[in-house]
């Protein structure tokens, strides 16, 4: 599962862009139950990911662009908790061209609601979408990137114990096979 949305619940709903109190379908019930357990007691979160690790599976993760919107101190606290739980942390931030990112999010928004993309007034509807706080905040790379880079372990640094790597890459480059930096951070052979 991706986008557990555990640590971003401190963000204002207008920025988060999702109301997690909405009714859910039966097929979503198991996911919602797991999420609620993790929110009620963070030990469930760490335990869930710890039990996924095995000799045949050594990489797992929680992926959502929303985490990049957290204040730096919250990210630092979360990173400390992950290291304390025994994880080597690799923060991966994939940037997209802002318009491409917003268009993808716009299409997903309608797909998730099983709605066709609007055909009348599409330009104005899309303009309102990308100017709204969720889209606007997720493309403020000038604020996000420095904050994430400061999370990385520095030689001789006492700020965080354990391994913390940060990989910032262009989504389009990654989709074109530019995986060397990400593979190195995850200790993978990029050819495998």
Task: Encode the helix/strand succession as letters.
Answer: HHHHEHHHHEHH
- Are there runs of 5+ residues with pLDDT below 50, and where? none
Work out the strand percent.
5-15%
Tell me about the largest β-sheet: 2 strands, parallel
- Gross morphology is globular
Number of helices: 10
Rg estimate, integer Å: 18 Å
Q: What's the total number of strands?
A: 2
State the end-to-end CA separation: 23 Å
Model description:
The chain is mainly α and 192 residues long. It is 47% helix and 7% strand. It has helices at residues 13-16, 29-40, 42-52, 72-84, 98-112, 122-131, 133-138, 141-149, 171-175, 180-185, and strands at residues 89-95, 164-170. A two-stranded parallel sheet has the order 1-2. Helix 2 (29-40) packs across helix 3. It is globular, with a radius of gyration of 18 Å.
Outline of the structure:
By secondary structure, the chain is mostly helical. The chain is built from ten helices and two strands.
Q: Could you outline the blueprint of secondary structure elements for this entry?
A:
Elements: H1 13-16, H2 29-40, H3 42-52, H4 72-84, E1 89-95, H5 98-112, H6 122-131, H7 133-138, H8 141-149, E2 164-170, H9 171-175, H10 180-185
Helix pairs in contact: 2-3
Offer a few descriptive terms.
single chain, mainly alpha, two-stranded parallel sheet, globular, 10 helices, 192 residues
